[in-house]
Design brief:
The chain is mainly alpha-helical. The protein has a single domain, classed as Orthogonal Bundle (Arc Repressor Mutant, subunit A). 43% of the residues lie in helices and 10% in strands. The chain contains three helices and three strands; from the N terminus they run H-E-H-H-E-E. The longest helix has 14 residues. The chain is globular, with a radius of gyration of 13 Å. The mean pLDDT is 89.
């Protein structure tokens, strides 16, 4: 008997890829900045992701150089596509 539903973003890589998709469709402001709430809100409200999943996905994307997170935590920037074939 299964008591909980599968969480599609429990894997940090899956969450990171979804965050990249969300960031790619958001209109960037000055210098390519994407305010963090512009990707956080759709991830948590529309996709029903959790805060832990968002945080793990964001850390994964930053660690793999897919996103650049400002030290203040208020915005991210999409990084240039790398030669890594796993990058979406």
């Amino acid at each position: 008997m299964k008591h909980t539903d599968e969480r599609p973003y429990a894997d940090p890589e899956a969450a990171a890829r979804k965050l990249l998709e969300l960031a790619a469709i958001v209109a960037a402001v000055q210098d390519g900045r994407i305010y963090i709430e512009r990707i956080n809100a759709p991830f948590m409200v529309e996709l029903k992701g959790s805060g832990k999943e968002f945080g793990a996905g964001l850390k994964h994307a930053v660690a793999h150089d897919w996103l650049e997170l400002h030290e203040s935590g208020t915005y991210v920037r999409l990084k240039k596509a790398s030669e890594d074939p796993r990058v979406p």
